[in-house]
Amino acid sequence: MDSLIEKVNKLILFFIIYTGAFIIFFGTLHYTLPFVLALVCALILKRPTVYISKKLNIKPSVASLITTIIFFAIIIIGLVFGIVHLTQETIQFGKNTQTYISQNSNNILNSFYKLQKYYNNLDPNIINAINKNFTSSITKLSNVAVSISGKFVSYIINLVATIPYILMVILFTLLSTYFFTKDMLTVKNKLITILPENKANKLFSIYTETKKMLLTYIISYMIIISITFVETLVVFMIFKIKYALILSLVCAIADLLPILGIGTIYIPLALIYFFIFKNYLVALGLVIAYVVVSIIRQIIEPKLVSSSLGLNPVAVLASLFIGLKAYGIIGVLFCIFLVMFYNILKKSEIL
Questions:
Q1: One domain for residues 95 and 213
Q2: Region 216-226 average pLDDT
Q3: What topology in the membrane does the UniProt record assign (predicted)?
């Protein structure tokens, strides 16, 4: 009985400490972002730094400098290329959409009018309301397309306006990454000298498990996003969908968002090709692809996340469902990390 009470007390204490740490972490992330990013980068660069240091027979500080510069150069070049390309595609997409709608407004209206035979049995008031909204819907659709592209461009402009802040974040992240990477190579020896060996080893064991799980968690979802992106890109290229790259990227990002998902791209595209372009084969293909990609995603997510983290698939599914229903993405993160850290402490025989 005493052991059960002690276990319950430990679980309650763990939940309180974890919840407080979670709230503090995300509440202060705006101020600690460069250092959090630097820590993640340092964890990624640790092995390459050790390898370069041994291979070239140079000091760890020099190896840390080399890996940090190369790593950030690759990231910055990739971001610049991606932002420029996506901005160009988005602006072109907005212009082409507006041009198409303005030039084919009569055809689009005729397509909507042909739909009347499907709702003639409805209440006359509903039919009149639908008829009155046809023209305004076309105008709104055009305005939405322009608005989306305009907002994206506006976002890019605002991003440019915050360049001083971004540069400061990059600078602090770069410097912190270098120092974290350099110091991380000797952190175990420093802990052993400060703490008793058994406690230092246990703390290092917790750190190792946490690092392993966090990295595998990030990698797992990067793989899921990549699979969704590649599947969507292949589908759009097969059906010769314009702006396949940007639409596939948006689809992959939307795949992580609650409620929205890949349906925010697939369903509107299928409706456009069915009612406007009259290309029923492409519309049917998009619907089938949407179902297949969704099923694949639902199958691989619990298995990939649970296997990579060493967690029970039911626990992962419960975390995803409860977190999503409770507080969206933040709720999912809270529940997943709760299960993850519980598993780490259990392995370390603390709980």
A1: no
A2: 83
A3: Multi-pass membrane protein
